[in-house]
């Protein structure tokens, strides 16, 4: 958990610096954490730190995690196979 927390703090600082340099607010930036191959408990811990948007590239993984982790904004990233469209829509 400590590693996730430290990484999150470092990323937030980088976002704040980049936003400041570009004349924007850090609150205008959305960090999309990719949860590919990450277990549900780790995603839950990351969400508890304030990470609210997660991306998955596999429909089955996204659907499984979405059921177990309400309150998270899920994004499908990457290519979508035609036979999976009905599952994700």
UniProtKB/TrEMBL annotation:
Gene3D superfamilies: Alanine racemase (3.20.20.10). GO terms for molecular function: pyridoxal phosphate binding. The keyword Cytoplasm does not apply. The keyword Thylakoid does not apply. Transmembrane segments: none annotated. PANTHER family: PROLINE SYNTHETASE CO-TRANSCRIBED BACTERIAL HOMOLOG PROTEIN, PYRIDOXAL PHOSPHATE HOMEOSTASIS PROTEIN. This is YggS family pyridoxal phosphate enzyme. InterPro entries: PLP-binding_barrel, PyrdxlP_homeostasis. Keywords: Pyridoxal phosphate.
